[in-house]
Design a protein that fits this description.
The complex is a heterodimer of chains A (about 1100) and B (about 425). With about 1100 residues, chain A is of the alpha/beta class. Helices cover about 75% and strands about 5% of the residues of chain A. Chain A folds into six domains: about 240 residues, 3-Layer(aba) Sandwich (Rossmann fold), CATH 3.40.50.300; about 160 residues, no CATH class; about 100 residues; about 100 residues; about 100 residues; about 160 residues. In chain A, the strands form three sheets. In chain A, strands 2-1-4-5-6-7 form a six-stranded antiparallel sheet. In chain A, a hairpin with a 5-residue loop joins strand 4 and strand 5. Chain B has a six-stranded mixed sheet with strand order 4-3-2-1-11-12, covered by helices on one side. Chain B has a six-stranded mixed sheet with strand order 5-6-7-8-10-9, with no helix packed on it. The longest helix of chain B is centred in the N-terminal third of the chain and has 24 residues. Helices cover about 30% and strands about 25% of the residues of chain B. In chain B, about 45% of the residues are buried. Chain B is α/β, with parallel strands linked by helices. Chain B is elongated. Chain B folds into three domains: about 250 residues, Purple Acid Phosphatase, chain A, domain 2, CATH 3.60.21; about 90 residues, no CATH class; about 80 residues, no CATH class. Chain B contains eleven helices and 15 strands. Classes of the chains: A alpha/beta (about 1100), B alpha/beta (about 425). At the A-B interface, helix 5, helix 6, helix 7, helix 23 and helix 24 of A face helix 1, helix 2, helix 7, helix 8 and helix 9 of B.
């Protein structure tokens, strides 16, 4: 598959750009840094696999214009089928000549290669290549396998390490792993559970004991209950006896005092209270009468001023203006003084203007804005004319000094030119000679380089011939190390000895003893085995000899082919050397010189011509400088003359303007010699005088208004004083008179209010006295009623009946209390009557004896019950403790949890162990089956790159790759130089690309500046490899180094790479153009 | 025949441990789970009293005798005592987990609680107002392993009142359960009872509606992630004509939920968390005030796989969803999050590629030989410490090994790709 055309709608710096007609072979794209090479690489990745996942720090190549990354590709398969791929962000459209295809058609055409594989193998940038340099040996190996193994192989060692770590964390042979810990805890829980099971049997035993105890306890509690009931009844009778006796006595006394039972309750106290209240009422009435007399006397002594009270409104109106009155009386003298000062200011201002000035002339004088603007305009024009004249005068002086300096420079340049001689040889002749020498210099250099290359070729030919000669020497005859006779010798010797021994045995021993033949058989067997062993060893050595011979033959044939190639290359170099020699001779003749032996001679001649040309350039510079100085002198003289004329014209203009101003100022009545700026000051004085006149008029008006207000208030106050019969304290009525009237008025008002209060209080006291008299009468009536109710004839009889009633009440209280106590003890009215009957019939002594007997028996029973209850309690506690034992449940729960954890971790362990096995086994398979093919391809490329100086191979059954130099010396990875490591890496990567191409459609290979670290020789070798690849699959090679393009151009001309389609493309700031 | 109601429950497994609590749960949740079997049975008793049931039948496995839990037996006695006090007679048949021969604390059962013997089928009469209301017949497991068909011991049908048969048995040879007291529906039909109250299978199911009505009550409280969904008992109404109306009533106090969530349509971790929060609230709503233990399996292929495989699911997924759950009675406790997701990677296609990843997958394929999983065990036995795990993996089935091998393949590929990306 190759990319025939592409178009970028928007991607990074590319906007609406594209190319078509890309060849199937090599496309070399060159451009400086930031010209868009990497963007183009990313564009192809984007087109094949869509946008990368966003990540911090990763450039997502958003287009400069528009929002979407989009583009199109035209792909051509090996079988010629076309495929049009369009993508806009994630949206992919795939078409072929027959129409629209499903999006996964692209993936199918890519042979299942995914994004990671494409990046690792087919789209390689500088970063991948440079990553090798910092890695240690193991990682270098891994990365070498990465392009060979595809995605995953590079990470394999780290993944194996991680899996091993996880497995160790989970489970260890003895202890320390998470699973080991779980198993230990499960064992502990098992032990604890077995201990808990023993406690259950104890529970059943205790329960039976408690049930037996509870049965006996129940019976004893019943008996105790019966005893307690009887004992309580006896104690109740003892308690009830005293209230029962009291109740009988109370009944008798109440019957005797029946006549005073209806006496008013608390009658004696009531009578005392009524008498006390009547005395208090009388005392209060006497006190109120005295107060009424005192109020009447005070009223007679009060007399307020009626005249003042009649003028109260007018006085209050004047008092409201009291502040204003005081203010105008104070202000009037101040304003009079201010008026006098303003008058004096007017006189001073008129004197400043001059004796002929008065207020009428002041009013007539024109100080308008128009006049002042005219004055200003004259002032501005006069100042401008004066400044111009001064500037021109200054300029005239400066130009005169410039003329003098230019004159001196001209004379110095003329002297330098006359002192320098003109070069003898013409400039055009010298330039022609330099051109010929420049063409000659690279030819001589190439002739020297060819000589060195030829020498290297001859040295390589000698090495190859020496190696070939060493291979043509016969290989060591390993098979002859063991001669044939040595193989059969042990068997023959054993047979001989056995025969001899058999004869001896047969002669001396009797017949029938078969066992004697056994040693002979053993001897024969040993001899046979020895011969067989020697024969096998001889065959093995012979096979090794044959294998070694074959290997040497193969190598010899290979070396012979390389020898032929090297010889052909040497002949080609010699032919090219002769052609160069002829060209050099022709140019030497043209340069009119002898044939140069080395490039140094040509460089010396070139330096000589360059020096002569430099002399020419210096003489021409002096001549030019002299001409320039003469031109400057002429120019400065012309400018000085022009400045003098301009200054004279400015002087004339200034004089005319001064005359015009004098006429204008005289015409308006001012002195002719007055300048515009002085006239402006004079006009300001006129304005100030006018302001003084205006201020004086205002002061006069103010003083008049103040005087009129003062006079009006004084008039009103004088009228009020007259009406209330008072005289002003001074001649004119003033604020002091007003304040005196206010004080008198306040006193009159106070007296009026006091009189009103006294009248009100007097009426209230008289009303209260009448009310007290009514209450006294009511109390007397109440006392009379109380005596009637008590049935007493007088106060003494009342008191005697009251004492008997008190005694009746006391007995009644005792009766009620005794009855209540008995009812409470009995529980109800009916039971009380029964209790009274029982008390009447009972013998207290007999009951006391019975009580003592019952108490003794109850104490014994209570003691027994208490003891047994404690025992039951103890058993209950023990049973409850056993029953409430939740440790079992918790342990069982923990056991279940741990088992589940163990199951999960076991699964994790098994998964990790199997993962590890899969990777390990895959590594073995890969190394055994895949690497050789990949590495064989890589070896081919590496040989091409290094001109067979190194060989790359993968030993069967061992990991990694091995490198061997031309002398068959192994090179460990640590011995690889950085450049060699890069070559190996590139070769392995290209090998893998070829390996993929064998399984599916060969995909375009995109290489971004991967030769940047290669020296020129290695670049040339790499260019051969890349061109060799381009024979089978399209290669897009990006570079920022122009010399890389030249290398490819040179290599493409070599016979081995003729016919490979090749195009050059230049990139610049997002623009693409085919190169010639 | 008078109408009446009875309640049928089974497989209480009081105080038996719960599975699936290996994840760290707060004390509130753990305590709720420890009390769950007791509270569930309390609810059964309360239901029987509230429904004014004539009797309550318990078809075996009241507790696990092997655990010797005294606490369980005492709590059981208290509960049935409450039922008897509420006028509900209780009939208990013992099963394989609490056979008559097994250890027990010899607690005296209250009046009104009857235990069936193990020698022969016993029948007890339940009366009301001096008349026979129903007969309850049953038999207990005398020992743990009863391989005999106990249904065959039931007497043939005789004229009489409504009859309930109580039995702990495996009907129809359900392979997911131990095959104790195996019998068939035909055997039960021949028992001569109107309602067969079964125990042993933990999922509630009505095997037959009538002639006779055969019902597994299921366990009253699920105890692991295989026992998801509502669990409870059956309230059976017997109408005057003998018609039966069994009604399932959930009694579980904690519900188990095992869910798979496909990450295929989810673009980001925020989307995933949002979906999980919505699902959590939906589970809470469905649980109607109960606690829920929730295990989540994230499955499927998607871009999110890469992100998920790099994070700690316990810390970054489970913990945000558990926040505040430990303190509320209607908790939804995310027990664990299992990552069973796959990258956007076609393993079969990848297996064809001639690169290292392809080789890893081809090795995995070669292990699926006809002798599977013997070769896997040989690989594992090469590691000496594996002997500690031999008993744990002993009962893994071939599908288990297939799943482990697939997980190993994904793990290997995933690790290699991730490590390569750095």
């Amino acid at each position: 598959m190759h990319i025939e055309a592409f178009h970028i709608d928007g991607f990074g710096i590319y906007q609406n750009a594209g190319l078509d007609g890309l060849p199937q072979g090599l496309v070399l794209l060159t451009g400086e840094n930031e010209s868009g090479k990497t963007t183009l690489l990313e564009f192809f990745r984007f087109m094949f696999f869509g946008p990368e996942r966003r990540a911090p720090g990763r450039n997502d190549y958003q287009p400069l214009v528009g929002q979407s990354r989009a583009g199109r590709l035209v792909l051509i398969n090996q079988d010629g089928r076309r495929l049009l791929v369009e993508r806009r962000e994630n949206k992919l459209t795939v078409r072929d000549d027959n129409g629209l295809l499903p999006p996964d058609a692209l993936n199918a055409r890519l042979g299942g290669v995914d994004r990671e594989t494409f990046r690792a193998v087919f789209a390689v940038d500088l970063k991948d290549l440079q990553g090798l340099k910092v890695l240690d040996t193991q990682q270098v190996r891994s990365l070498i396998f990465a392009p060979g193994g595809g995605v995953g192989a590079a990470a394999m060692p780290r993944v194996l390490q991680r899996l091993e770590q996880e497995l160790a964390d989970l489970l260890k042979p003895k202890k320390g792993g998470r699973l080991n810990d779980l198993f230990s805890r499960l064992e502990e829980i098992g032990r604890e559970l077995r201990e808990l099971e023993a406690g259950a049997a104890r529970f059943a035993e205790l329960q039976a004991a408690r049930e037996a105890l509870e049965e006996g306890l129940w019976q004893r509690k019943g008996e105790a209950c019966r005893l307690e009931t009887r004992l309580a009844r006896i104690r109740l009778l003892a308690q009830a006896r005293e209230p029962w006796v009291t109740l009988g006595t109370a009944r008798e006394r109440l019957e005797e005092l029946r006549e005073v039972a209806d006496f008013p309750p608390d009658g004696l106290m009531e009578r005392q209270r009524l008498k006390q209240a009547a005395a208090e009422l009388q005392e209060e009435r006497e006190r109120l009468k005295e107060e009424a007399d005192r109020l009447a006397r005070e009223l007679e002594g009060l007399a307020p001023d009626a005249l003042l009270l009649a003028e109260q409104r007018e006085i209050e109106a004047l008092l409201a203006e009291e502040k204003r009155f005081e203010e105008v009386q104070t202000r009037e003298p101040e304003e009079r003084h201010a008026l006098e000062q303003a008058q004096a200011e007017v006189r001073r201002r008129l004197a400043e203007l001059g004796p002929e000035w008065d207020e009428s002339r002041l009013a007539r004088t024109d100080t308008s804005l128009t006049l002042r603007q005219e004055v200003l305009e004259y002032g501005r024009r006069l100042a401008k004319a004066e400044r111009r004249w001064e500037d021109l005068l200054s300029r005239e002086g400066t130009l005169a000094e410039n003329v003098t300096a230019t004159q001196k420079e001209f004379e110095a340049a003329q002297a330098r030119l006359e002192a320098t001689p003109r070069p003898p040889e013409e400039q055009s002749v010298l330039q022609g000679r330099r051109t010929v020498l420049r063409r000659l210099l690279p030819l001589v250099g190439r002739r020297e380089l060819l000589a060195v290359k030829l020498q290297e070729r001859h040295r390589a030919l000698a090495e190859l011939r020496a190696r070939l000669d060493s291979l043509q020497e016969p290989a060591e005859a390993l098979g002859q190390a063991i001669p044939r006779w040595l193989v059969v010798l042990p068997a023959l010797v054993a047979a001989g000895v056995a025969a001899g021994m058999a004869l001896g045995w047969g002669f001396f021993r009797p017949q029938g003893e078969g066992w004697v033949w056994l040693p002979l058989m053993g001897l024969l067997l040993l001899g046979g085995l020895a011969s067989a062993g020697l024969g096998a060893g001889r065959r093995h050595l012979s096979r090794r000899e044959a294998w070694e011979r074959q290997r040497r033959e193969e190598e010899r044939q290979g070396l012979a082919r390389r020898l032929e190639g090297e010889a052909a290359e040497a002949a080609r170099l010699e032919e090219e050397g002769a052609r160069l020699e002829a060209e050099v001779a022709a140019l030497t003749q043209e340069a009119e010189r002898e044939l140069p032996a080395a490039s140094a001679e040509v460089e010396a001649a070139l330096a000589e011509v360059d020096q002569a040309l430099e002399d020419w350039r210096r003489w021409q510079a002096w001549e030019q400088e002299c001409l320039t100085a003469a031109h400057y002198l002429e120019d400065s003289r012309r400018r000085w003359q022009q400045a003098r004329e301009e200054r004279e014209e400015a002087e004339r203009e200034l004089e005319g303007l001064r005359r015009e101003w004098g006429a204008w100022v005289q015409e308006r009545g001012f002195p002719a010699a007055m300048k515009p700026e002085n006239l402006e000051v004079f006009l300001r004085l006129v304005e100030a005088a006018r302001v003084a006149v205006s201020q004086r008029d205002q002061a006069r008006e103010q003083h008049r208004r103040t005087w009129e207000a003062l006079r009006e208030i004084r008039t009103r106050l004088a009228q009020v004083l007259s009406r209330v019969g008072r005289e002003p304290q001074e001649g004119e009525p003033g604020p002091a008179d007003l304040r005196r009237v206010r004080r008198d008025l306040a006193e009159a008002e106070k007296q009026a209010r006091r009189r009103q209060e006294l009248l009100g209080r007097l009426a209230e006291v008289q009303s209260r006295i009448a009310h007290l008299e009514k209450k006294e009468a009511a109390l007397k009536e109440e006392l009379a009623q109380l005596r009637i109710k008590a049935g007493a004839r007088d106060d003494a009889d009342f008191e005697r009946r009251a004492a008997r009633h008190q005694e009746w009440r006391e007995w009644r209280r005792q009766y009620d209390q005794s009855l209540l106590k008995l009812t409470t003890l009995a529980g109800s009215e009916t039971l009380r009557e029964e209790l009274e009957r029982e008390l009447a019939a009972g013998d207290p002594v007999a009951l006391s004896r019975e009580e003592e007997e019952l108490a003794r028996r109850l104490a014994e029973l209570t003691e027994t019950i208490s003891r047994e209850e404690r025992e039951v309690g103890r058993l209950t506690q023990e049973l409850e403790r056993l029953a409430a034992e939740r440790r079992l449940g918790k342990l069982l729960q923990e056991q279940a949890d741990l088992k589940e954890q163990a199951a999960r971790l076991s699964r994790r362990y098994v998964t990790a162990a199997l993962s590890r096995h899969l990777i390990e086994a895959a590594r073995q398979v890969y190394e055994r089956e895949h690497q050789p093919r990949v590495i064989a391809e890589a070896d081919r490329f590496l040989r091409l790159m290094t001109q067979s100086r190194y060989r790359l191979f993968a030993p069967v059954g061992e990991g990694g790759v091995r490198l061997e130099d031309a002398t068959h010396r192994h090179m460990e990875e640590v011995q690889w130089s950085a450049g060699l490591a890069d070559q190996v890496y590139l070769a392995v990567r290209l090998g893998m690309a070829r390996e993929f191409g064998r399984h599916c459609e060969p995909l375009p290979l995109i290489l971004d500046d991967v030769l940047v670290k290669f020296d020129p020789r290695r670049r040339r070798g790499a260019a051969r490899v890349i061109l060799a690849c381009a024979r089978d699959q399209q290669v897009l090679f990006f570079s920022s180094h122009p010399e890389v393009e030249q290398i490819f151009r040179d290599v493409a001309r070599e016979p081995d790479f003729q016919g490979i389609p090749l195009k050059y493309l230049h990139l610049e700031a997002g623009r693409m153009a085919w190169a010639s | 025949m008078a109408a009446f109601t009875f309640v049928h429950c089974a497989d209480l497994h009081l105080d038996a441990p719960f599975e699936g609590l290996a994840g760290v749960a707060p004390p509130g949740v753990r305590e709720a789970l420890r009390q769950a079997t007791f509270r569930a049975f309390d609810q059964v008793v309360s239901l029987a009293v509230a429904e004014q049931a004539a009797f309550l039948v318990i078809a075996g496995d009241v507790y696990d005798s092997a655990h010797h839990s005294l606490y369980a037996q005492i709590r059981f006695r208290e509960a049935v005592k409450r039922a008897a006090a509420g006028g509900v007679e209780v009939f208990v048949a013992h099963g394989n987990h609490d056979p008559l021969s097994a250890w027990e604390a010899r607690l005296r059962l209250p009046e009104g609680v009857h235990r069936f013997g193990g020698e022969a089928v016993e029948c007890r009469v339940v009366g009301r107002g001096g008349a026979e209301l129903a007969r309850v017949c049953g038999i207990s497991f005398p020992v743990r392993e009863v391989r005999e068909n106990l249904a065959a011991r039931f007497p043939r049908r005789e004229p009489g009142p409504f009859t309930v048969g109580v039995l702990h048995a495996n009907v129809g040879g359900n392979p997911a359960h131990d095959n104790y007291a195996p019998c068939s529906l035909a055997d039960l039909e021949a028992c001569g009872v109107d309602y067969v109250a079964l125990g042993h299978v933990h999922a509630p199911q009505v095997l037959r509606q009538e002639g006779p009505c055969v019902v597994y009550a299921g366990t009253t409280q699920g105890r692991n992630l295989r026992e998801t969904g509502p669990r409870g008992c059956f309230v059976v109404q017997v109408e005057e004509g003998g018609r039966l109306r069994p009604r399932f009533v959930p009694t579980d106090v904690v519900r188990w939920s095992l869910e798979d969530l496909d990450i295929g349509g989810l673009a980001s971790l925020d989307d995933l968390l949002e979906a999980l929060q919505a699902r959590r609230e939906e589970l809470r709503r469905q649980a109607e005030g109960r606690g829920v233990i929730w295990r989540l399996n994230l499955t499927g292929r998607g871009e999110l796989h890469d992100r998920l495989s790099r994070l700690d699911p316990e810390r970054e997924l489970a913990e945000p969803l558990r926040e505040g759950e430990g303190e509320r009675p209607d908790f939804v406790w995310l027990e664990s999050v299992a990552l069973d997701t796959r990258p956007v990677l076609d393993l079969e296609r990848r297996r064809q590629l001639p690169d290292f990843l392809g080789e890893v997958l081809r090795v995995g394929g070669s292990l699926r030989s006809p002798e599977f999983p013997r070769e896997l065990l040989e690989v594992l036995r090469r590691r000496g410490e594996f002997r500690h795990l031999a008993s744990l993996v002993h009962d893994w089935t071939p599908p288990d090994w297939q799943a482990v091998l697939a997980a190993a393949e994904y793990q290997a590929v995933d690790l290699l790709l991730r490590e390569e990306e750095g």
